[in-house]
Amino acid sequence: MIDVAQRIFGVTDIGNNQPNNEVRFLLILKNRDNDILGLPIDSHPSIIRVPKSAFIPLPDIYLTQGNIHCISSTIIKVENQSPYFVLDINQLL
Known about the structure:
three-stranded antiparallel β-sheet, alpha+beta, two-stranded antiparallel sheet, Positive regulator of CheA protein activity (CheW), CheW-like_dom_sf, 27% strand, single chain, 5 strands
């Protein structure tokens, strides 16, 4: 399992060691080398279909000021929704 918040933002979820009764999900993925990894997520996963035109370059401000890692240079912009960031699974490892 990978601590996604730590890998992307460089912070550790301090509440992770405290017991809670919240429902969590584990997203199971394979990278290009067929390594299996698990990503714990706090909300129900969803699958959305988006056209290729929805994939746009990540604005430079996110990379220069956000101290964000493991994000590809692409985001998905869907009308009337917050942008979706595309994770680079190989960079997470």
